[in-house]
Design brief:
CATH class: Mainly Beta
Helix content: under 10%
CATH topology: Neuraminidase
Largest sheet: 5 strands, antiparallel
Number of domains: 1
Strand content: over 45%
Number of strands: 34
CATH architecture: 6 Propeller
Distance between the termini: 31 Å
Protein name: Kelch repeat-containing protein
Number of helices: 0
Shape: globular
Pfam families: Kelch_KLHDC2_KLHL20_DRC7 (PF24681)
Length: about 375
Amino acid sequence: MLIPNLTHYSGEGAKNAKSVPQRFLSATFADLPAPDLHWEKMPSAPVPRLDGYAIQINNLFYVFAGYGSLDYVHSHVDIYNFSSNTWVERVDMPKDMAHSHLGIATDGRYIYVVSGQYGPQCRGPIARVFVLDTETKNWNSLPPLPSPRYAPATQLWRGRLHVMGGSKENRHTPGLDHWSLAVKDGEALEKQWRTEIPIPRGGPHRACIVVNDQLLVIGGQEGDFMAKPGSPIFKCSRRLEVVYDDVYMLDDEMKWKVLPPMPKPNSHIECAWVIVNNSIIIIGGTTEKHPITKRMMLVGEVFQFNLDSMTWSVIGKLPYRVKTTLAGFWDGWLYFTSGQRDRGPDNPQPRKVIADMWRTKLSLQ
């Protein structure tokens, strides 16, 4: 609700000041009405992580890398078993692999990890590509991307590993590039990446999903934090970003088609989605900055995109607002872990990096 403040200046400062109404906008104005869900606390992840990434293969949930804090990054994979509801294994990552802002996809056995940021704070990106064999726990490498990228939209589609958008080397400039590489059983079938049709809107932190043999790219943003000029530790410095609600689909003719937008702009949702009953479920994220304070605002809703009707709905609330959460679905339960949560019910700004794991029984209309 927008409330004009009609208080007039008085006293000494009034000589050079006009009576300009000051605007106030609730910090929670972007929250959408949503039903409450019953969330059950599960065993927390071994470490807290922000900008981590995750892949589910059957009942196993592979949680990769991420920041422990802005000054510390993880270099391992934690594995959660949905059947026993326990964290069961840890796998070290290659020393040359990025620690955040990855692209990630799987064929059901091999997990492909593309580019990303190497190191803490706002360090530079790399172009390296790695593959984890989830049966042997061995790592392999593939041809590097033509250029380094931060958090590109990444997915396996029709035998090719597609990498799109993301941020360019300075971490802020959106990339429109779209490359693909033929892969099979964790191996590259080509020596170089192929240039494909550019993505209509560039930038990082979007969901990239293959469903019904269609490739969808959802949400995201243009712009991101950059390294402070001259900082020896590449200290993160805020830049203005634009969060969007766009949804694109790559059709059979390799042309982009615009689908209905999300209920509100949403970013930091790369691994915050699952597919259930021909619907895409997306949880949490970040939305457009507060128009007056310019503060980042987190998302606390659960969204459903029904692929039969091509319509969006808001189906529930999270225990708190949270970004870069990692979502899984098993035996009727919607799970999420990790990310950065809000400062409280009345303050959607980000604060604590978490290791929490939650689940709720999901019933879709």
